[in-house]
Amino acid sequence: MRSTITLSALAVLSPAFAQITTSPKRGLVYVPNANYPQDNNIWDSSGSDLTWYYNYGPEPSPNFSNATNFQFVPMLFGAPNDTTDTSFLTSVQSQISAGANVSYILTFNEPDGTSATGGSDVPSELAAETWIREVEPLKSQGVKLGAPAVTGAQTGFTWLQQFFTACAGNCSADFIPIHWYGDFGGLASHIGQVRAAYPNMSIWITEYADPGANLTDSQSFFNESSQYFDRIDYITRYSYFGSFRSSVSNVGPDAAMLTQDGQLTDIGSWYLGGSATGFVPSAASHTAFAGSSLLVVLAAFWCLS
User: Fold this and answer.
1) 72 forms bridges with which residues in the sheet?
2) Contact between residue 181 and residue 152 where contact means Cβ atoms under 8 Å apart
3) Taking a C-beta distance cutoff of 8 angstroms, is the pair 182, 213 a contact?
4) Mean pLDDT of 92-120
5) What's the mean pLDDT in 107-122?
6) pTM for this prediction
7) SS3 string of 33-65?
8) Residue 245 gets which letter from DSSP?
9) Which of 1, 23, 99, 175 fits 202 for a cystine, CB–CB 3.0-4.6 Å?
């Protein structure tokens, strides 16, 4: 179970009175849906507040190949079976050589989680070995390195400790990505625990949502967490998990940024820096939340072998 410790004295902003805010910290967790290719145009539109994106893979998405202010962040999703493999390193170095602005990379999506929930299921020792071979060399090219993005469960802390122990000082991560699925109190507490454990690293929130919450609670969670992230200087980037239609959302229809018809919900519009749209998300059916289970099929494609 994910921690849901509640913090006291947290101010709650009513969704009805949410103000339009913009932030250079905001990015996109890009989860494409082949059934709705037109939705891709929403995220890098001229009015979008988003400045960066990742797609759980090492190569940029063709849909955003012409985007000038939408920086791609490559990810090493899992660990290849071949312990001599350097395909991720080669890919990133090739992008840099071609002129791409690769300033950051992400690594190991929920390695303490199973493939059934979208995790990469990588032993900490293998992850350390892979990092030293495929990730650490990018440091000399000025790329800032994201630590493995573990789950928000206690197993995440344990796995990360084991990873850095196995690295024996050879894994120089610059920032800690966080995944959280639960209410705002639990999120804030979790961030505090991560900060206490790694006080010298900045933090990215690369997946977060309050799964299964109703519309009012989802909007309150979104507004409260966005304000919190923008206020804390050591949180340098964040990306809400909801860039899909409510009809296919595995975090509940009310958490999605698009309605079943592909219109921006209030949350979706707020996230892009716009005003409330009044479009209400709904779904005749939706899958139960299981971490990043929406990514299971994509994980099988992206995971290196």
Assistant:
1) 53
2) yes
3) no
4) 96
5) 96
6) 0.88
7) CCCCHHHHHHHCCCCCCCCEEECCCCCCCHHHC
8) B
9) 175
Smallest Cα–Cα separation from 56: which of 97, 109, 1, 3?
Answer: 109
CA distance 83 to 126: 9
Query: CA-CA distance, 257 to 24, in Å (whole number)?
Result: 19
Q: What is the pLDDT of residue 293?
A: 44
**For position 37, what pLDDT does the model report?**
93
Residue 120: closest CA among 82, 154, 182, 76: 76
Provide φ and ψ at 115, rounded to 5°.
Answer: -65, -25
Q: Which amino acid does the sequence have at 274?
A: G
Write phi, then psi, for 243 (nearest 5 degrees).
-85, 55
C-alpha 2/C-alpha 157 separation (Å) is 12
pLDDT band of 20, cuts 50, 70, 90: low
pLDDT at 103 over 90: yes
Which is it for strands 27-29 and 52-54: parallel, antiparallel or unpaired?
A: parallel
Confidence of residue 46 (pLDDT cuts 50, 70, 90): confident
Question: For residue 68, what pLDDT is reported?
Answer: 78
43 or 285, which is more confident? 43
- Separation CA 48–CA 244 (nearest Å): 16
Phi, psi of 146, rounded to the nearest 5 degrees: -90, 130
Beta-strand relationship, 104-109 and 71-72? unpaired
